[in-house]
């Protein structure tokens, strides 16, 4: 594996990268500086940071790179570093003549410096807008098709005018077939251009929504776990749904109307040509329309339901706690509260729907009114013989091509506001620091049991609560088995999670083989270390699928052995030794916590990692399962560094060292005290002897 000290990046490549990023001044400075001709990745990283270039350092992953905006630096494990960029769904690299060439395939192994933001931008660049720009190739066809459909849309009014003025007025019925044929052709072009445009808009908005969801998902995966758990699952899901909202606005029926809005100018020009100053009537009416609808919208928005969230929470509570509610039999209080929210929800929604209805009716009336005023004003022009009767009829028909999109624009105002807030949310979200904003290129030694050192670890989950860890300091020798014990809530789980970097302590640090944990690539480290949590999470699928999440290439035999070693032989028999048994066919809630514990432990054992961390591995086990696990532990002792939490007396005796915690602090760390081998369950008696 590459280390930041070993691999080199040529200075010339960096200069070219800065040039490609448009940072020509910086490129010149680097050229003139006394920087060596070959610099390490670490120095490259520092140099980019020094020039305020925002970047993420990650393993090469096509799905990440497909969403990049700027050129990036590819640092393959084998071969020379490259400047590359995304070109639609392929990649290009910059050759020595500074020409972009197709990159046949991305290197499998190595790192990439993804450039996220550039310095000296006077105005903050919206990540949303930058990604939207990727769809620019669709702009032109959409523009021309919209223009074509707007022009051919004039066919029916002009046809009507020609029939009225020439065929009826001019008594020339023989020209009727020619006019009708022309109108028919225009209509065919109109319909086809609309269909093609709808297809293009649907394709591009779907691609855009897919990119947004992909980026949001990747971003979520790369965010520190502390941030993820603080924000909560539902808001993450809402973020992914934002992409869906944007797609539905652009591709939905309202989207087409919004695209047509600028083309209403064609209808104005047509009225101007047909009826001269009569065009002032629709212009004036449109201004009036705007003022009235603005006030109407304000009136409607004032009635936006505020209880929806509370009501939704009630429904969620019901879904989650139905069993408890039924079991307790005490549903009156809950029912009263639910009914109150449901009633209020109905009342607010009724009021909102009423105002929306009024809004739509006023908009429609304004459209009619505009047409009527135009007709009445136009009559004088006809009587004056300034325009023909056919032209007046055509103008009245054209009015609808103006008021229609205007009505739609007002109806879509809410959706446009929603898009605006989605864009802001997305941009803020993309600015959140990820685990990959730091250069973490080290990877742990895969073979040997590591030593661990925890130095002054301090962690508070929130500013209001007492620290869960407070200045924790102790060492673990390579191959040592350490039991962390202490009363409930004393910080055992938090300690394990911090020791393997799942959560970051606010102060203090952890070293593994004397290297700070923060130097390790977070992904590689997590794949390397084996961790078994108390609450196991499962993905829909078979037992084998869920076990192979830990080791994708494990054989069936290895999966079964890991389950047996974890003490889960009974679970295997209950599933008729069938690794393909679907864990969810039994219903997730029916899956017992202990059974889940076997799978979680088996996953950790499958990794055969020299670092094994387990949170209460044998809680509530039957004696047979406990013995099986203790046998496994005995086999691993010495060759693996093992860290576990437990309340189990017997298991503690198998540790080389115990660490006793109380209220987030270490009260004892050392061998099991010989004068007190019976460490009581909550270690209270041990505490008294200290
Ligand atoms: N995600 C979290 N957010 C806020 N507080 C938390 C969180 N997780 C744990 N805590 C709090 O931190 C303290 C330590 O919790 P922790 O789970 O580490 O204790 P523990 O010793 O493992 O407990 P147990 O023996 O019950 O598993 C407790 O007061 C707990 O309420």
TrEMBL record:
Record carries keyword Nucleotide-binding: yes
Major place of residence: membrane
Domain ABC transmembrane type-1: 145-407
InterPro entries recorded: AAA+_ATPase, ABC1_TM_dom, ABC1_TM_sf, ABC_transporter-like_ATP-bd, P-loop_NTPase, Type_1_exporter
Gene Ontology molecular function terms on file: ABC-type oligopeptide transporter activity; ATP binding; ATP hydrolysis activity
Pfam families linked: ABC_membrane, ABC_tran
Domain of life: Bacteria
SMART domains: AAA
Residue ranges of every copy of the ABC transporter domain listed in the record: 454-688
UniProt subcellular location: Cell membrane
Membrane topology value: Multi-pass membrane protein
Keywords recorded for this protein, A-Z: ATP-binding, Membrane, Nucleotide-binding, Transmembrane, Transmembrane helix
Name used for this protein in its record: ATP-binding cassette domain-containing protein
TM regions (residue ranges): 142-163, 175-196, 265-292, 357-383
A Gene Ontology cellular-component term: plasma membrane
Natural source organism: Shewanella holmiensis
């Amino acid at each position: 594996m590459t280390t930041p000290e070993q691999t080199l990046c040529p200075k010339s490549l960096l200069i070219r990268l800065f040039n490609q990023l448009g940072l020509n001044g910086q490129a010149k400075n680097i050229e003139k500086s006394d920087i060596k001709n070959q610099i390490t990745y670490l120095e490259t990283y520092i140099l980019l940071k020094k020039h305020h270039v925002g970047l993420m350092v990650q393993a090469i992953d096509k799905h990440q790179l497909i969403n990049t905006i700027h050129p990036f630096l590819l640092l393959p494990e084998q071969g020379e570093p490259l400047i590359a960029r995304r070109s639609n769904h392929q990649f290009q690299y910059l050759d020595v003549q500074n020409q972009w060439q197709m990159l046949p395939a991305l290197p499998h192994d190595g790192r990439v410096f993804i450039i996220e933001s550039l310095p000296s931008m006077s105005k903050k660049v919206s990540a949303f807008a930058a990604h939207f720009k990727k769809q620019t190739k669709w702009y032109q066809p959409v523009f021309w098709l919209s223009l074509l459909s707007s022009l051919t849309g004039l066919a029916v009014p002009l046809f009507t005018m020609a029939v009225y003025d020439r065929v009826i007025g001019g008594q020339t019925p023989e020209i009727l077939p020619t006019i009708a044929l022309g109108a028919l052709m225009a209509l065919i072009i109109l319909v086809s251009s609309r269909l093609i445009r709808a297809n293009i808009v649907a394709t591009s908005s779907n691609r855009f929504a897919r990119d947004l969801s992909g980026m949001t998902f990747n971003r979520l995966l790369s965010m520190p776990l502390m941030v993820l758990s603080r924000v909560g699952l539902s808001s993450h899901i809402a973020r992914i749904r934002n992409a869906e909202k944007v797609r539905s606005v652009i591709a939905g029926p309202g989207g087409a109307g919004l695209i047509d809005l600028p083309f209403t100018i064609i209808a104005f020009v047509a009225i101007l040509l047909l009826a001269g100053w009569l065009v002032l009537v629709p212009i004036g009416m449109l201004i009036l329309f705007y003022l009235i609808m603005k006030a109407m919208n304000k009136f409607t928005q004032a009635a936006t339901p505020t209880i929806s969230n509370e009501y939704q929470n009630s429904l969620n509570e019901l879904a989650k706690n139905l069993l408890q509610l039924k079991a307790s039999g005490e549903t009156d209080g809950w029912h009263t509260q639910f009914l109150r929210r449901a009633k209020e929800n109905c009342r607010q929604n009724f009021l909102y729907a009423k105002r929306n209805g009024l809004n739509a009716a006023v908009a429609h009336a304004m459209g009619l009114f505009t047409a009527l005023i135009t007709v009445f004003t136009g009559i004088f022009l006809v009587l004056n013989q300034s325009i023909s009767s056919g032209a007046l009829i055509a103008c009245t028909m054209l009015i609808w091509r103006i008021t229609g999109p205007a009505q739609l624009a007002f109806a879509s105002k809410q959706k446009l506001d929603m898009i605006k807030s989605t864009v802001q949310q997305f941009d803020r979200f993309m600015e959140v620091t990820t685990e990959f904003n730091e250069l973490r290129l080290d990877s742990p030694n895969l073979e040997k049991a590591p030593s661990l050192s925890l130095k002054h670890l301090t962690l508070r989950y929130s500013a209001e609560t007492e620290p869960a860890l407070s200045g924790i300091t102790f060492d673990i020798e390579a191959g040592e088995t350490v039991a962390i014990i202490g009363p409930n809530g004393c910080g055992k789980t938090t300690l394990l999670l911090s020791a393997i970097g799942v959560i970051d302590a606010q102060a203090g640090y952890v070293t593994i083989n004397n290297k700070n944990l923060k130097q390790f690539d977070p992904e590689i480290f997590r794949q390397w270390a084996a961790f078994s949590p108390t609450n196991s999470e499962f993905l829909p699928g078979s037992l084998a699928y869920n076990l192979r999440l830990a080791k994708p290439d494990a054989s069936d035999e290895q999966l079964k052995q890991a389950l047996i070693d974890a003490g889960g032989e009974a679970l295997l028999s209950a599933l008729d030794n069938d690794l393909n048994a679907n864990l969810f066919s039994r219903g997730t809630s029916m899956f017992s916590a202990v059974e889940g514990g076997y799978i979680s432990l088996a996953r950790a054992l499958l990794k055969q990692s020299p670092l094994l961390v387990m949170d209460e591995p044998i809680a509530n086990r039957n004696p047979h399962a406990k013995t099986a696990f203790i046998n496994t532990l005995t086999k691993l002792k010495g060759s693996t560094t093992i860290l576990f939490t437990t309340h189990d007396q017997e298991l503690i005796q198998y540790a080389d060292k115990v660490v006793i915690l109380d209220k987030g602090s270490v009260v004892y760390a050392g061998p099991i005290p010989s004068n007190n081998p019976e460490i009581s369950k909550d270690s209270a008696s041990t505490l008294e002897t200290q």
